[in-house]
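Recap for those who missed Tuesday's class. We walked through two folding examples back to back. For each one, the amino acid string is listed first and its predicted structure tokens come directly after. Nothing is annotated here on purpose, so try labeling regions yourself before you check the end of the notes.
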Amino acid sequence: MVSAPHEAMHRIFQDHPDLFSGVSKVLGVDFAPPTSVTLMPTDLTEASPLERRVDTLLRLETEDDEPLLVAIEAQGKKDPDKPASWAYYASYLLTKYRLQPMLLVVCQDHATAKWAEQPVQFGPPQWPLLTLRPLVAGPHNMPVITSPAEVRKDLALATLSAITHGKGPEIGTILKAVTTVLRDEPDAVKNPVIEFISRGLGKLPAAALWRTLVAVDLSFYKSPIFEEVREEARDQGRQEGRQEGREEGREEGREEGQAQSRAEGILDIFEVRGIDVPEAVRERITNCVDLEILRHWLRRAAVAPSADAIFTDD
């Protein structure tokens, strides 16, 4: 079954095809930046009933004499059958297009990435016929981009960094740096990045952190994430208001719902980052009803070294 992280890990190259050159450079292989890009059909099915599809296939025109075909595969776990499929993709692409193929495998965990980057030989041991050597991008070699200045230099690479490091301890700082930069970007730039990271993190604990960081500044983004968080707060406010039966009760209930949502978001961030929250700190957070103070604490929670450090500049 195709998952959201699977789709995000390869579809980002469809929106940002020049990202392949940046990733390959990080991996120590120098490919010239493309002068033009064509999104190719991903169906590699032959006339026989067997269906084979690569995740993303790009044709990159470069300043070199010959174009390059890049097959991009998102791999979520070890699969002993995959190397044979990848070898088939490479030979099929070479046969069909008469262009040199490359394979980039994108992973989210170290074990899968290390497995995928091992060369695989096909043929008898005394005379191997083929050797498969994919480029592999994962948490073991993708940069940990935690500085807003670095995010601005290459927003696509920073997005992939967030996706590939979704299980790592630095994810909170990475996501905070991305949201800092996105506040200054137009909707056409920020919206796809927010959705890519949301899909890429899938059901990882860091997804709750990303959801909270996106929703904390409710004025800078309107997306399904934003609308869902805002509607939750509104629903809770309406329920409180109906119980009171007065207009002021509805307004008070709405604000209390927002305050509770932000307090829970702060505690979620600490949980994702593995930071212990003393009971006194927990009570101070959950008892606070000032939305601006909670918003300030929420932002600090992504980078604070300890739970009580969010209060230090009050």
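Example two. Treat it independently of the first, because the proteins are unrelated.
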Amino acid sequence: MKSKIIVLLLSAVALLLAACSQGTSSAEEPKVLRLGHIQSESNAWHKGSVRFAELVSEKTNGTVKVEVYPSSTLGSDRDLVEGMQIGSVDFALVAGVMSNFYEPYSILELPYLFEDLEHLEEFVYGENGKRLQEEMLEETGVRGLEFWLRGPRELTTNKLVESPSDLRGVKIRVPNIEASVEGWTAMGASPTPMNFGEVYSSLQTGVIDAQENPIAFTASARIHEVQDYLVKTDHVFGYVQLLMSEKAFEDLTEEEREAVLEAAEEARNFQNEIVFQEEEEALQDMLDQGVEVIEVDQEPFREAVQEVNEALADKYGRELYDTIQEMRE
């Protein structure tokens, strides 16, 4: 009888130790969060994302792990935003498509809104940019962590374009953003909203004739292999946002949240340092591949979109539009 009691006690102790061991193991497992974007692994977005993941791991002592999924692995821009809203995606890099979820962002997509890169930086890194992100969070459940800079958007085409009149009949791919559609229509083109992943094949088969993006974006997708001209329109000085699902943010401890915010700022600085160097390298690659660069007088393009800009400012946020315009002075 004594021996049976001893066996039972030893078994109970073993089970208790196993349970404790499992509990300890589970507590030590990191929180795994997913970050998606639409760019290739050669792009500055991806390099910045990888750096962000490294910084989060360092600053949380490994309690939070960020896995990076490039090249639309987790879906398109819209898919990523919707994923953050329901909690299936934790972080994403998203540019103008955010305007489909919070309308005031449409103002930032207006062609020739910003005079230059410095004008953009003054806005996004100032109080106005912070307030816009706070309002977006309340409306969408998606938290804006940081704005990352991009090179200006330029036109690529298989037709020589030197003025808006040359755009007549040109089928141009644009993101599914009203400001882009209306702006290019005003400049004379025939815009076609399309996911970026379809652009190369659509240019190759003649479904579209042109597209517009920052030079590094264009080069990383090898778009210049199926385009003859790069037209320096500088029509949008833009950004991409590092975004986070508020559901994921709330699941972190206070220390982990602070670590994520610090990592986001440092990753922003890292990405901003390399993005324009990559623009120069990408431009040289395009030149080496035989693309012809066309320098144009941008004023006729700018004048062509002013009525559209005024109309969309009234629709999406006259106060925000006027604030940005006043920053020119």
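Answers for example two:
The mean pLDDT is 92.
The radius of gyration is 24 Å.
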